[in-house]
TrEMBL record, chain A:
Belongs to the BCKDHA family. It catalyses: N(6)-[(R)-lipoyl]-L-lysyl-[protein] + 3-methyl-2-oxobutanoate + H(+) = N(6)-[(R)-S(8)-2-methylpropanoyldihydrolipoyl]-L-lysyl-[protein] + CO2. It comes from Aestuariirhabdus litorea. It is an enzyme of class 1 (oxidoreductase). Residues 54-348 form the Dehydrogenase E1 component domain. This is 2-oxoisovalerate dehydrogenase subunit alpha. Its cofactor is thiamine diphosphate.
UniProtKB/TrEMBL annotation, chain B:
PANTHER family: 2-OXOISOVALERATE DEHYDROGENASE SUBUNIT BETA, MITOCHONDRIAL, 2-OXOISOVALERATE DEHYDROGENASE SUBUNIT BETA-RELATED. The branched-chain alpha-keto dehydrogenase complex catalyzes the overall conversion of alpha-keto acids to acyl-CoA and CO(2). It contains multiple copies of three enzymatic components: branched-chain alpha-keto acid decarboxylase (E1), lipoamide acyltransferase (E2) and lipoamide dehydrogenase (E3). Residues 4-180 form the Transketolase-like pyrimidine-binding domain. The keyword Oxidoreductase applies. This is 2-oxoisovalerate dehydrogenase subunit beta. CDD domains: TPP_PYR_E1-PDHc-beta_like (cd07036). One of its GO terms (biological process) is branched-chain amino acid catabolic process. GO terms for molecular function: branched-chain 2-oxo acid dehydrogenase activity.
Amino acid sequence: MSTFNPEQVVHRPEFIRGDELSIPTLCLVQQDGTPYDGAELPVLEQAKALRIYQAMVRTRVLDERMLAAQRQGRLSFYMQSTGEEATTVGFAAALEDDDMIMAQYREQGALVYRGFSLDEFMNQLFSNELDYGKGRQMPIHYGSAKLHYMTISSPLATQIPQATGYAYGQKLAGYKRCTVAVFGEGAASEGDFHAALNMAAVLKVPVIFLCRNNGYAISTPSSEQFAADGIAPRALGYRMHAIRVDGNDLLAVYGAMMEARKLAVERNEPVLVETMSYRLAAHSSSDDPSGYRSKKEEAKWREKDPLSRFRNWLVAQQWWSLEQDEKLFADEREQVLRTLKEAEHRPVCRLDELITDVYDEPTPQLKQQLEALKAHIRKYPDAYPKTAGRLDHG
Amino acid sequence: MVKMNLLQAINNALDIAMAENDRVICFGEDVGSFGGVFRATSHLQERYGRERCFNTPLVEQGIIGFANGLAAQGSVPVAEIQFADYIFPAFDQIVNESAKFRYRSGNLFNVGGLTIRTPYGGGIAGGLYHSQSPEAYFAHTPGLKIVVPRNPHQAKGLLLAAIRDPNPVIFFEPKRIYRASVGLVPEEDYQLPLGVAEVVREGSDITLLAWGAQMEMVEKAAEMAEHQGVSCELIDLRTIAPWDVETVAASVKKTGRLLITHEAPLTGGFAGEIAATIQQHCFLHLESPIARVTGLDTPYPLAHEKEYLPDHLKVFEALMASVHF
């Protein structure tokens, strides 16, 4: 409990200054793959390191190809995570498989790492009949109960207090698990962020708040988002652990998240992790960054590419070669294109699914509305080509 | 059967739900050892511990965000918003998240265990910010169930049903009659069905439809009308969403007239939705236009509360006008 401490009194007005607080950034590996002097690298065995790298490559290739497919008019929308793969794959690799991930929308790397297949990605992106979300949400709103990955929701930051609640339930059930809420620095301006951190600290909840500070919220640079030294210092006001990490350094993200998980699960305490990175791509396929930032700025960050940094480290370990790398990229491109073609021609799910899952059972009103809609479609089948031929047999 | 007031019935329902299922968790502002500002959660922390009944920080969006996460995890949260007037900071978490969780995930995830309890309505000299009836805002959102009890017996049976219902439920409690409404309540566990209206009294000349605290006005007006030789059929809607069209339509086909009353303002109020639906179902049976007796299209006032409220006299005048149309 906060109290007035009689031993800490002053007799003239002295202000505590926010700009005097500066939080360091954990960096372990340089761009050429060499560790910094004195860097304490986390233990990472070869098989796992390669699994992480392959997930980063798949994420990169998926993003490139799907943006191209969006430009060709084959899907309506896409969001890339280029430049942030070390963060989104690295944090997931540090978790146990049944820790819950409640992500924002740009964390496909975590799903790739957990084994969400290319087919599963494509089914959602094309809203076909195999989409787990039954064609109800825009592309990139993935979810998987099997992989403990909460379905993405468009409203910003809503998942952050939900993660606190989810983790409280895990704690009460006696599970040695945690929940990770992932969000951008822009989402940290929302009320939900502050509500979530305060409640987590007060209620002693095993939740990790992972802020991907990637420089921009659509066009708004972080300098117009907050006046403080990033997001990490906010944790201190809630009496919570915080760490800032180089988000382009896979080993730094992995190491910091391993420690954060330990704090959360073993001590039932929330942790805030801020990864410093850069959104190399546009916000989404509807955005054009040339309107708000320079090519020079982007080029500077391209030199810090997280894929090449981790690849250089792997090659230095003699766990990977450039020949293997070339083949991996080629294989991934081929697989992405093949699954894309299969998914884009599948039909959408049955019209009956329009009214399921609103409630556990459709209400009488919903059933009537569906029957009226079907009657209308039967009358004008040409106007509704996706469903007109499939009303009765599903 | 035991004599209880409405608050005691709610407390009794929470006690039964928590004893039966250790995943039921009650929380909100001042809900812990204090037992809530109205005492609806009295003694629950004593009985079930601080982990299952606790105070939260003062942050409605956090309370419901937290509750959504808990429910998605498989717990059964019963979150209290201290006054329905203060539910709006949580509006996004309720209408964009609770209501759509199951639909948007294709039923991979749901928050069906969630119940939100909140005291609503006027008549307590509470002015603008302690008197509102915001049910219509939520009725516009598919995926939510909205329930309003009118007496202790209903409060217990409907709240137990709400907690066990596999959908998110907002449970609006009529705070004006929290202590004033006293009645016999079974001690044992029982449920009343959600989505089903109750025909409280049969009649032949006009159907009077209300819910929650407003049922008292309707009952008084019906007695006045009885002395004038007018026979009123009284229906308590009990669930605003999804509402029981069948029971109301059957009654209106019999009586030929309908009057709906609620405390919330007229424009966009839930009576409008009922009127539109019933005229579609019962057009050829109607003997007069469907009447609405509601609050005014103003914020809820303090000094003129009595004038503002749709009381029994206003209901009586409107029902007699319908009968003599």
